[in-house]
Amino acid sequence: MIKVWIIISRPFNIVITGCAVFIGGLLTGSIYPLSKIVLAVFSAAFICAGGNVLNDYFDVKIDRINKPKRPIPSGKIKRKAALIFFIILTLAGLIISIFITIKALLLAAFAILLLLIYNGYLKRKAGFIGNITVSTTAALSILYGGLAVERIEGTLFPALFAFLFHLGREIIKDIEDVAGDRIAKSCSIPTYLSLEKSYFLGFIPLFLLFIITPLPYFLNIYNFLYLLLVIPLVNLLLLVSFFYFRKKLDPKNLHKLSNIIKLGMVFGLLSLIVGTL
């Protein structure tokens, strides 16, 4: 029974969010005070988990078509129980943020507000704006780490990278879920554009990322090791993936591509860490 509650919270996403917060602090040049960073990691983890539960709460009709084995559409978790779980998780994250800084509390509250607006309205009614909103929420985890140590300037480039990564991946995920979105009359990009056009649109932020990733090195923000890692592990990975999957836009391959982009995020974070050494 506990396993299904872990599944609905999506532990892999939580780990990435927690790591992003920690790295956000690390990229400022210091993780002092460490206690603040630890609190920020747990706060963001709870809010992320809550957002994942809320996503499944609102997406139950679509998931019955696209992902029927998920906890709510499969009947393993009742919608009302999922809503209560969301409230508990987000409250925990918000309460923890009180002990970080006032700015951290405000950012946490803003992130929760964005999650509510996105899942409750924008995801189904305002396609691309919804993609931008959820990508902004993801990028806030990097800034959150900077706020925890009160040195947000060092997190601006990484937050921009995170935003572009997530924006591309969100559009790719929409293509994967287009069948359910059409039946549920959700206004995602692939519901009114062809799959191929949506695919190219989804890769625009990823190509922009491809172009700007070397900039921090040339601006003397990160060292040469950053460049040595980010080009093959992120840029080359995205480029090869784009051409490999361009003619394979079925749900199975798109799911693989979504996971590859997620892997690229992990490699990107690793490159940033090494770049600060």
Give the key terms.
about 280 residues; globular; Tetracycline Repressor, domain 2; mainly alpha; about 80% helix; 13 helices; single chain
What is the CATH superfamily? Answer: UbiA prenyltransferase
Please state roughly what percent of the residues sit in beta strands, choosing from under 5%, 5-15%, 15-25%, 25-35%, 35-45% or over 45%: under 5%
Kindly state the percentage of residues in helix: over 70%
The tally of domains stands at 1
Would you kindly provide a written description of the structure presented here, covering whatever features stand out?
By secondary structure, the chain is mainly alpha-helical. The chain has one domain (2-275): Orthogonal Bundle (Tetracycline Repressor, domain 2). 78% of the residues lie in helices and 0% in strands. It contains 13 helices and no strands. The chain has helices at 2-9, 11-26, 34-58, 60-66, 79-97, 102-125, 127-148, 156-176, 178-183, 195-212, 215-218, 224-245, 251-275. α2 (11-26) packs antiparallel against α3 (34-58), α3 runs antiparallel to α5 (79-97) and α6 packs antiparallel against α7 (127-148). The chain is globular, with a radius of gyration of 18 Å. The chain starts with a helix and ends with a helix. The model has no long low-confidence stretch (mean pLDDT 90).
